[in-house]
Amino acid sequence: MKSAKGSRRSLVRRAAVAVVASTAALVSLASPASAATATTGTVSITGDPGDWVTGGSSYKYNSDADDVLTLTGSQDNDYVRVGIEGANGDWWTIEFAAPEGQVLAAGTYTDAQRYPFQPSTRPGLDYSGNGRGCNELGGTFTIETIKFGPRGYVEQLDATFEQHCEFSTSAARGEIHLLNPPPPAELTMDIAVSTNGTASAISGKATISGTVDCSTPVRIQLNGRVTQVKHNVLIRGDYSTSVDCVPGAGTAWTAVAEPTGTTPFQRGLVEVTTHGWATDPHYGNVVQVDKTTVVRLDRIRT
Q1: Which residues contact 183 (CB under 8 A, 6 or more apart)?
Q2: Domain identity same for 45 and 84
Q3: Hey, what's the signal peptide range on this chain (predicted)?
Q4: Which residue, of 179, 213, 243, is where some domain finishes?
């Protein structure tokens, strides 16, 4: 039995992990979300004599023993990846995928082939690492429990698998029990534009303002356009700014639009379009909000 405790990972192993991860990213059919380190979890693997990947050995990993265990799910909830970085320097990945068009759910999946090269009608499976993997494989896996959160976050996974590298009679078998924290809430945000602004009698620029609201601290990017018609002349100017939003009371923002032509912004009504966006710090997706507001500009001598 090989212990999951031991010396630090070597630089060579780290480089190999990076190469494997880069290759997988190029060929993967899933759209994985961010990995999450398991709060609690264990993974055990055994190999028959003659199994190429395990070398006929057995391995045990535990998040309480400084082994790093991660879960990555797909946006479509049809795929999950288990990452293992043992405290002793071992590194493995275990991937499960449902047949095309299906959600990965509790049940037994037979006739699995190597992910991500399996036919669309077959489930996908791949257990590899420590510099070893299969060119082709056959296998089966059972999902006992799987719980997805938003955008592919995997809160819980209990699964077993059996893999036959190159369709050998020898097999690698594994058992997985991983539990992550409840998924964080997705980012929500809103934009408000004040219905009062100013038009500078000196620069001809329009100043607008407002507030942003958000469910988690995040930097929000804002841009838009101020449009005014005066004496049959169309006056336009774009603006952009950013603001560090804090949940709770609205966070104030101000922006200045410079007219694109020679006609300055003037006192009166303008149309203000505002586009705001921010990247969800938990899931990496972009959240966007659009607003159109009628604003009254007052003339100022600054």
Answers
A1: 149, 150, 153, 155, 282
A2: yes
A3: 1-35
A4: 179
Q: Which helix (H) or strand (E) segment is 221 a member of?
A: strand 218-230
3-state secondary structure of 21: helix
213-251, pLDDT tens digit by residue? 999 999 999 999 999 999 999 999 999 999 999 999 899
* Chain Cα centroid distance, residue 258: 37
Which residues does residue 79 pair with via DSSP β-bridges, in sequence order? 97
Ramachandran angles phi, psi of 54, nearest 5°: -85, -20
Query: What distance in Å separates the CA atoms of residue 103 and residue 230, rounded to the nearest whole number?
Result: 57
Closest CA to 188 of 219, 148, 226, 216: 216
How far is residue 193's CA from residue 207's CA, in Å, rounded to a whole number? 11
pTM for this model (two decimals)? 0.75
Class of residue 232 by CB neighbours under 10 A (exposed 0-12, middle 13-18, buried 19+)? exposed
The residue among 202, 206, 238, 234 whose CA lies nearest residue 222 is: 238
Residue 141 CA to residue 111 CA, distance in Å, equals 9
End-of-domain residue from the set 124, 145, 179 = 179
Task: Work out the number of other CB atoms within 10 angstroms of the CB of residue 134.
Answer: 23
Q: Where are the alpha helices (DSSP H) in 4-159?
A: 11-27
As given in the structure block, the two tokens for residue 63 are 């998040």
Count CA atoms closer than 13 A to 237's CA, side-chain side: 23
**Tens digits of per-residue pLDDT, 111-124?**
999 999 999 999 99
Domain count, the chain: 2
What amino acid is encoded at 278 in this protein? A
